[in-house]
UniProtKB/TrEMBL annotation:
It holds the Pfam family Usp. Belongs to the universal stress protein A family. Transmembrane segments: none annotated. This is Universal stress protein. Gene3D superfamilies: HUPs. Residues 1-141 form the UspA domain.
Length: 142
């Protein structure tokens, strides 16, 4: 049923709980494939771009590995294989688009549990993904 799973993570503690849930699912679904996606909405500085020889992908990958080091460590310790994808843009939009283009069967994402006022003002990536995705979304809360 679930062959292609995707963990959307920013490396936060909330995303760490989602990573633990994703690992648990992968152990129950040994034939499934896991993709971890990290989307940055922060543009690299001019000096970062110059140091990387204008290679934005290299910057995004380096930033992703720093941000999700604990998540990668969890997956490696659990011996759960994964593929890392990095992207730049609006996190919710990129996550949904990537999941649709790659026929993801389930998205796993953490939630900070913003209160109603904060969510209206700031928005919520997990909420946007839930409403826009065309596959099941597992939101892991506190």
């Amino acid at each position: 049923m679930y062959k292609r799973l995707m963990l959307a993570t920013d490396g936060s503690a909330h995303a760490g709980r989602a990573a633990e849930a994703a690992i648990g699912l992968m152990k129950e679904l040994p034939e499934a494939e896991m993709t971890i996606i990290h989307v940055s909405d922060k543009a690299p500085s001019r000096s970062e771009l110059m140091q990387a020889g204008l290679n934005m992908k290299a910057i995004l990958e380096a930033d992703a590995h720093k941000a999700i080091a604990e998540t990668e460590k969890l997956f490696q310790q659990a011996r759960v294989p994964y593929e890392l994808k990095v992207a730049f843009g609006n996190p919710a939009d990129v996550i949904v688009e990537w999941s649709q283009n790659n026929h993801t069967d389930m998205i796993i994402i953490g939630s900070r549990g913003l209160n109603a006022v904060s969510e209206v003002i700031m928005g919520s990536v997990s909420r946007k993904v839930l409403h826009q995705a065309n596959c099941p979304v597992l939101i892991v809360k506190k």
